[in-house]
Write the structure tokens for this entry.
Amino acid sequence: MKKYHYVYYSYESWGRGYIGKRTCKCHPQDDVQYFGSFSDKTFNPGNKIIIAYFNTSEEALAAEIALHEFYDVAVNPHFANRARQSSKFFNTEGVAKAAEHKEKIRLSNLGRKRSEESKRRMSEAKKGNTYGRGNKDKRGNCATLGLRLTDEQRIRKSFKHKKTHRIELTNPDGVSLCPVNLTLFCEEHGMNPSHVRSVAKGLRKTVKGWTAKIAKEADQSSSSSS
């Protein structure tokens, strides 16, 4: 029996939408009762548009992946998709997991025994990683072990954290600025971040000719990373 492959867009009237791929034995125009395999129980679509037809399931999947990536459906509030489709599975990277989902993951890992081969591969993967070693939480976990961020990632990470204050530095020529990422700034200027913080707190006078003070709310126009 002939199978039909298509990509569709189901949506609520004046609400969110859902992009998916479907393979069925009836003609897509007659597949009127199917609106998607979404898990969001608050999503209630009543309309569906056929975006494109394809000869194979692989071609339809490729189109679905491209649309998911273009609209970033996993985090886009205009879509009910909870994940982006990939070539073999749904990609949930960057998507916040519900408490119920987290509990299911925890329960599935309880009492799980890893094979010797699995342990060996994990050991090999961690060899040579020193970043974050020793910075463990109360349970002894070290989530940042082996993670090496680029300078751009470090700056972006700085913007995500809410800060009540920043440190304003003044160089020997009298030019003042508020670095977005103090650690990165000190690395670029050959200074120790802890020494700069000591100057800002009044425990030291200067660091290599630089002075520092606590800025309650740093003016973004004076913020700099170099």
